[in-house]
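Tokens in:
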């Protein structure tokens, strides 16, 4: 059983829902990433999604695009992201870490090499935005061979057939994109999300995380009422951006910790 699977099993036994915050590795610089990861855990994160910066992040809105640009400008790369996970693991061997990114850096490294190095670094799951499930059998097998969970996105437009196909190769959890568009865009229609989840649950027994558009504790609580996990990204990146705008990173961890702790309280308002 992977760390991700153990986490969801524990939370299920406790009658609680998972909080999964997202940050971009190397934003605004590599030295801040691991302290931010620890701050997320201290604030109540159950799983961390760590973004691998990419020059053409097609699924991401302006906020996360800027984060990728800042990280790439400081020389962040996939290999360096894995080094950051290794550093995080020296103090935390319990919190699952999921890499979220795009196919190009993985293909450049080589899928087998990436899978081996990611597992050695302490990565628990990998979500590649532009690996369609219909073409991702090799990816899924490579991840599972190294004890990692391949995680996939499910869109509002996904049919029952596509969800079923995704469920066959996914493990850990599936990530439901709560709105059509890029990260951080649009107004979240909670009712529409609630109506979609029964269709997803008919096709898979995996936990369902919901992300895109969740910006505060109140919305997190509403999503946690029917999802297994709440994913928050752009709002956290905005806090990092604001806290480091003057070049002083000293308050970033405390500010992010306070924000995520508030969202954690919202998630914990819901009991199964």
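Residues out:
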């Amino acid at each position: 059983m992977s760390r991700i699977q153990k986490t969801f099993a524990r939370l299920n036994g406790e009658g609680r829902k998972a909080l999964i915050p997202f940050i971009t590795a190397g934003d605004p610089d590599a030295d801040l990433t691991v302290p931010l990861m620890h701050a997320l855990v201290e604030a109540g994160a159950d799983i961390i999604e760590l973004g691998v910066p990419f020059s053409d992040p097609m699924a991401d809105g302006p906020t996360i695009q800027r984060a990728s640009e800042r990280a790439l400008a400081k020389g962040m790369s996939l290999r360096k992201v894995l080094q950051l996970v290794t550093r995080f693991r020296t103090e935390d061997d319990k919190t699952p870490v999921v890499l979220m990114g795009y196919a190009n850096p993985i293909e450049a490294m080589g899928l087998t090499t990436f899978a081996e190095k990611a597992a050695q670094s302490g990565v628990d799951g990998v979500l590649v935005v532009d690996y369609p499930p219909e073409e991702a059998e090799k990816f899924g097998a490579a991840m599972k061979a190294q004890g990692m969970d391949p995680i996939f996105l499910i869109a509002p437009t996904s049919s029952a057939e596509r969800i079923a196909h995704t469920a066959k190769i996914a493990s850990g959890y599936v990530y439901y994109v709560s709105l059509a568009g890029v990260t951080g865009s649009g107004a979240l229609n909670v009712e529409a999300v609630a109506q979609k989840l029964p269709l997803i649950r008919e096709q898979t027994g995996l936990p369902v995380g919901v992300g895109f558009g969740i910006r505060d504790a109140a919305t997190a609580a509403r999503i946690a009422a029917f999802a297994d996990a709440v994913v928050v990204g752009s709002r956290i990146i905005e806090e990092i951006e604001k806290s480091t705008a003057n070049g002083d990173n000293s308050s970033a961890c405390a500010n992010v910790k306070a924000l995520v702790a508030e969202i954690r309280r919202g998630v914990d308002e819901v009991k199964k």
